[in-house]
Amino acid sequence: MEEEYIELKREGDRIEVLELMKSQYPFYVNPEFLSLKIYQTKDCVFLEKIYKSKPSEVINEPLNSISDFFDPNDSLEKNAIDFVFELGEYTIMMTFEDVFTEEVAQEIINNAHSEEEE
Question: How many angstroms separate the CA atoms of 47 and 21, rounded?
Fold first, then answer.
């Protein structure tokens, strides 16, 4: 089986994941984002959010709280790929309330509840 090549847009010590998120989750991602980046320090991996309405305001959310899924000892590339392709829409929606639109978040919740009832 041939591995798919994923091109990551690295900007210094950060990787821009907004376009990857849009390709992985078409119509899900909040259109208010100007940028979504992954970066890490020696102790923590972060999601950096910048909104179109406030381009000078940078919001950083630690990713380490997600059951040690993100390890700052791993490469930045691995953590970025894991965020986009391994985390899953339900976990993204529950952990980061505004990454997806409100309508999509409600749809994800409804689908999860209907699967539980089956």
Answer: 13
Rounded to 10 degrees, the C-alpha dihedral 71/74/75/81 comes to -60
Three-state secondary-structure class, residue 63:
coil
Distance between CA 12 and CA 2 in Å, rounded?
30
What's the pTM value of the predicted model, to 2 decimals? 0.84
From start to end of 41-118, where are the E strands?
A: 45-51, 54-62
CA dihedral (103, 108, 113, 117) positive or negative? positive
Least Cα distance to 89 among 77, 79, 101, 80 occurs for: 101
CB count, 10 Å around CB of 51?
A: 15
Distance CA 92, CA 81 (A): 13
Sheet containing 14-16: order of strands: 9-11, 14-16, 33-40, 45-51, 54-62
Q: Where are the domains of the chain?
A: 9-117
What pLDDT band is residue 32 in, cutting at 50, 70 and 90?
Answer: very high
